[in-house]
Amino acid sequence: MVINFFYGLSFFCLGLAAFLRLRQGGEFPLRKQLPWLVAFGFLVGATSWVEMFLDGGSIYQGNNILRTFFMFSHPISGLLLLKFGWGIFKDLLPLPPWTIFIPGVMVVPIAYIITYAATTFITPSPMEIPIDIWSRYLFYLPGSLLAGIGFLRQWHYQRKLGLFEVSNLMLAAGIAFLFEAFFVGVMVPAAPYGPASYYNYDRVVFNAFSGEQVEILQPFGLDYEKVLNTTGLSVEFWRMVSSFAVTIFVIRGLDVFDEIRKMKLIELQDERDLAQQITLDTQISARETAERWTDAIVHINRQIVDIDHADNILSSIAEKARDLLNSDFLGIALLEDNQEDLNLKCYSSATETKMINNLMPIENRIIRDVVLNANYYR
Questions:
Q1: Neighbour count for residue 27 (Cβ, 10 Å)
Q2: Angle ∠(228,229,230) on CA atoms, nearest 5
Q3: Which single residue of 141, 150, 159, 323 could bond 167 by disulfide (Cβ 3.0 to 4.6 Å)?
Q4: What's the pLDDT at 280?
Q5: Confidence of residue 189 (pLDDT cuts 50, 70, 90)
């Protein structure tokens, strides 16, 4: 009864934590799977507490109602776990291309298992026994395995990103689900057929032919006594431990995903601030450049208004234009009256600014074509 109580409490806390995390909002990888985890946690918690009351025999009037609830809660909670496990396996990371062949390969064995399970329901044993057993085999076992493998894939992915703290939590959650797969999906109530006759946690089983509860002796397999003798603790205790591990690491994993989301938001905020700073610097630079051009134009206009010598005006134009364009050399050439001759009049370099008194024709064909055709050339 104590183990059932804490087992139910563990999964109830898991469902409650997932529910509260779901209500907080936000976008993170596990969000779409949380409703299934919430329903699974609450239902498994309620089922374990119902089993505790039934085993304790403290309730008599509502026993039939509780037994009916207990009988149908197993397949429903198993389906919820299977849906959650499939979501963890499929949605957190893209599946490898070869996984498209899995459904076709699994059709035959799954059909065989379902057919074999269906035959056990027609045996004259209590209905809750095969329902419990095959809910574990068909739903709990694959659901826990899928969830475990999904978290292990996250462990590998987060390690490649360098998030070692996150990857360690994903590894722990994956191992915890694999433990849950074994102690809940493999170790089932004893039955005189199939794997349940070898891997179970009961020392007695309902004999379908005599209609009596008899002790079963198992020369092979992993039964209650072997686990108890090997570890000193019962299968039910290890099942409770696995539930604690699943609850702790999944809840911690939800917090970690939230931290990852916050880290990404901080990175986006930093990138936005950097972009704003670059834009501001660009605007300041453009404003400074415009002011320098304006100052140069005002200076040259002042020289013209003051009727300064033409050579001085040309020298100022060459010097300031070279500085504004940040070029190594800038020359000013004048087109003669015949509209064909192009002569250099002044130039400005890094070392000097000089007027050309003698004729210095521009022979460069490209420059002549640009000037005479009034068209740029690159």
A1: 9
A2: 95
A3: 159
A4: 94
A5: low
E strands, the chain, where?
A: 204-206, 213-215, 329-335, 342-349, 353-355
Tell me the C-alpha distance between 252 and 172, whole Å.
Answer: 10
Give CA separation, 134 vs 116, 142, 162, in Å. 10, 12, 41
Q: 């020392």: which residue's tokens?
A: 203
Torsion 49-50-52-57 (CA) sign: positive
Q: In sequence order, what are the residues at sequence separation of 6 or more whose Cβ sits closer than 8 angstroms to the Cβ of residue 17?
A: 247, 251, 254
Tell me the CA distances in angstroms from 78 to 74, 108, 158, one per residue in order.
6, 21, 29
- Backbone φ and ψ for 205, nearest 5 degrees, come out as -145, 150
Q: What phi and psi values does residue 311 have, to the nearest 5 degrees?
A: -65, -40
Residue 54 CB-half CA count within 13 A: 16
Residue 127 has which token pair? 């209905």
Closest CA to 346 of 295, 374, 310: 310
- As a whole number, the mean pLDDT across the chain is 76
Output the six-digit token pair for 16: 């409650």
Residue in the block written with tokens 């993170």: 28
Strand-pairing partners, residue 222, are: 199
Is pLDDT at 275 greater than 90 in this prediction?
yes
Q: Which residue has the tokens 């500085």?
A: 323
- 3-class DSSP assignment, residue 23: helix
Residue 291 has pLDDT above 80, yes or no: yes
Please give the C-alpha separations between residue 178 and each of 70, 249, 280, 284, in angstroms, as whole numbers: 24, 13, 54, 60
